[in-house]
Design a protein that fits this description.
By secondary structure, the chain is an alpha+beta fold. The chain has 2 helices and 4 strands, in the order E-E-H-E-E-H. A 4-stranded antiparallel sheet has the order 1-2-4-3, with helices on one face. Strand 3 and strand 4 form a beta hairpin. The longest helix is centred in the middle third of the chain and has 11 residues. It is globular and about 40 Å long. It starts with a strand and ends with a helix.
Length: 119
């Protein structure tokens, strides 16, 4: 019974440009005390076993990792009972150097170059 609005724009950023994609909803929102840990692996908003908002808690962590590997980021703004807005910012030119030094887990060996070739 809510709405979702997706916007996309190309904007100046530093010495270049970036693509900004925002996804705003009028859902249940996210409590302020949860926001700092929202992008951590296996973090969920409601971890009760009966939660109707289930999930594995990997989606946001992976999304943030991919955005950062491409030189961008993903952020969130939210208010309980009002909704949330997730914003992705990516440079229009993706760096081609690998970021294996940033990988902290054995499975985190993606590079911006591999992502650019996959696109």
């Amino acid at each position: 019974k809510g709405s979702i609005v997706v916007t996309a724009a190309r904007q100046p950023a530093g010495a270049g440009e970036e693509i900004v994609v925002a996804v705003r909803d009028t859902g249940i929102g996210i409590a302020q005390d949860v926001l700092p840990s929202l992008f951590e692996k296996f973090s969920v908003v409601d971890d009760s076993s009966s939660s109707k908002y289930g999930g594995t808690g990997l989606g946001l962590a992976l999304s943030q990792k991919l955005c950062r590997l491409m030189g961008g980021d993903v952020t969130v703004e939210s208010e309980l009972g009002i909704g949330s807005c997730f914003t992705i910012r990516l440079p229009t030119v993706v760096r081609t150097q690998t970021h294996e030094a940033e990988a902290t887990d054995a499975g985190d060996t993606l590079s911006a170059q591999n992502l650019a070739h996959a696109a």
